[in-house]
């Protein structure tokens, strides 16, 4: 059975009852669709778009996505499935000049774009939300804070369809997304629903614990002493009540914001505390790298910190930190140990990869670019492993990132088997058309349930998937792991509550289908 619609290409989309039921509901009211990655939320968007394109031939459909590669992927999908001229499905990003965007908008039936571009063009009057019959908000969990999604939704009088695999950890966050996107109905599907079960292959998650060598703890103690020293200054200044060394980076960042606000109000007494928090953040990040990433990323970070401190424009906090004996000791030891020890997580990763079949496709997720580079280089030294690094477009110190063109080339090479291991940062978590893989490895746990679900969703699409999470014992890895597990449980409970309060399912209507 295939979907039958005048604006959907014949024999192109397999008929799935749950997709058609959700689409049927979404044409009549603003709808948030919450479903795992493998269940085809893009197809639902295509079905709803086909309805509005047929009903309102003089208006456009806009599909919004957080990144340029994801917007480009949507453009390719809509061209593949919709029975309209491919030239009338256009891609609008910051790479296209404003004048060209106006021309493309006027000739388009479907516009795939990043939200920042659409917001700017609306603000400059280049085109209008009045032109739209439907707006699709992909990765809808982003519709909070200062992100452009809520502002755009407020301006749009058209139908709204929002898509996400993970809307938030509790009822309040989910309700906020719904409020910001003017959602009236929430359609929820998961792997346990009767109508989706045939399409979900399942994923096994396992946790591999590693033990950090004793010298790691020696360096950690040195860094903790440095951190306590800065925290004692803050306590003496009355900025904090306790100089506990388990303070989180988030707590320090929140404190920094409060101190900077006080300084802007004319309080010169805040400056010493701001300097102490700045140094504390540097040290806290170093501890984080040591515990979760290993000796290589730590030593490189400390080396960069020491180099920055030598520059004329270096902050007082950085200069003061770099001349402390404990900082110098930690730096020297990290460089020595980097050459002496192979990090236990990298060794665990090597064992995992070498224990599986040669033709297995693998994604290794890690938080930091330095770690991604190290892992890709480390793994490529072993027979049968062809690893490639996959990072974002933004340029960072000593790292220009990957252009959109290069990202697509890397993914195509991975798809074709030139590489069999993709070592990726968070850019690969969200939405991109990355081939389904057999194994996903988390080099470190992430405390966010949204990121946990997105990473895990890269496997288990076409066959049973496997996920391995590496956890360094007695470190913040353990806290991050339990945090994400608890958050995901709360999210699922919240979604069940939303479904139970009657904002769930549409009737199973079948006007979309025909015989195969």
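^ Assign residues to that structure.
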């Amino acid at each position: 059975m295939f979907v039958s619609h005048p604006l959907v290409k014949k024999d192109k989309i397999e008929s799935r009852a749950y997709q058609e039921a959700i689409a049927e509901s979404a044409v009549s009211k603003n709808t948030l669709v919450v479903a795992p990655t493998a269940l085809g939320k893009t197809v639902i968007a295509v079905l709803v778009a086909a309805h509005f394109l047929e009903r309102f031939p003089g208006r456009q459909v806009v599909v919004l996505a957080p990144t340029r590669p994801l917007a480009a992927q949507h453009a390719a999908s809509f061209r593949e499935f919709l029975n309209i001229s491919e030239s009338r499905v256009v891609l609008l990003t910051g790479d296209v000049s404003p004048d060209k965007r106006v021309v493309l908008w006027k000739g388009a039936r479907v516009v795939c774009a990043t939200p920042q571009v659409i917001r700017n063009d609306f603000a400059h009057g280049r085109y209008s939300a009045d032109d739209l019959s439907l707006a699709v908000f992909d990765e809808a969990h982003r519709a909070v804070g200062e992100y452009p999604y809520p502002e755009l939704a407020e301006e749009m009088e058209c139908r709204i369809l929002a898509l996400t695999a993970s809307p938030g950890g509790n009822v309040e966050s989910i309700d906020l997304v719904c409020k910001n996107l003017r959602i009236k109905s929430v359609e929820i599907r998961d792997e346990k629903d009767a109508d989706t079960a045939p399409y979900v292959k399942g994923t096994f998650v396992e946790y591999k614990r590693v033990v950090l060598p004793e010298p790691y703890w020696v360096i950690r103690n040195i860094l903790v002493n440095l951190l306590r020293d800065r925290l004692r200054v803050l306590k003496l200044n009355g900025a904090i009540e306790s100089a506990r060394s388990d303070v989180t980076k988030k707590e320090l960042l929140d404190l920094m914001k409060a101190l900077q606000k006080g300084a802007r109000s004319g309080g010169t007494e805040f400056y010493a505390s701001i300097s102490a928090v700045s140094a504390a953040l540097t040290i806290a990040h170093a501890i984080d790298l040591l515990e979760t990433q290993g000796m290589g990323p730590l030593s490189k970070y400390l080396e960069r910190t020491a180099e920055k401190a030598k520059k004329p424009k270096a902050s007082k906090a950085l200069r003061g930190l770099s001349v402390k004996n404990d900082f110098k000791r930690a730096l020297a030891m990290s460089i020595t140990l980097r050459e002496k020890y192979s990090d236990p997580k990298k060794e665990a990763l090597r064992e995992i990869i070498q224990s599986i079949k040669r033709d297995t496709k693998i994604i290794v997720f890690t938080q930091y670019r330095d770690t991604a580079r190290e892992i890709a280089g480390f793994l490529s030294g072993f027979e049968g492993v062809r690893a490639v690094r996959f990072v974002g477009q933004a340029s960072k110190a000593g790292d220009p990132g990957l252009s959109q063109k290069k990202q697509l080339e890397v993914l195509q090479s991975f798809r074709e088997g030139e590489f069999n291991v993709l070592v990726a940062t968070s850019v690969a978590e969200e939405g991109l058309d990355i081939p389904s893989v057999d194994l996903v490895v988390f080099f470190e746990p992430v405390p966010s349930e949204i990121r946990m679900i997105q990473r895990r969703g890269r496997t288990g699409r076409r066959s049973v998937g496997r996920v391995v999470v590496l956890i360094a014992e007695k470190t913040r890895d353990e806290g991050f792991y339990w945090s994400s597990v608890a958050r995901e449980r709360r999210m699922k409970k919240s979604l069940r509550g939303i479904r139970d309060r009657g904002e769930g399912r549409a009737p199973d209507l079948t006007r979309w289908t025909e015989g195969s």
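Residues 503-516 have pLDDT under 50 and may be disordered.
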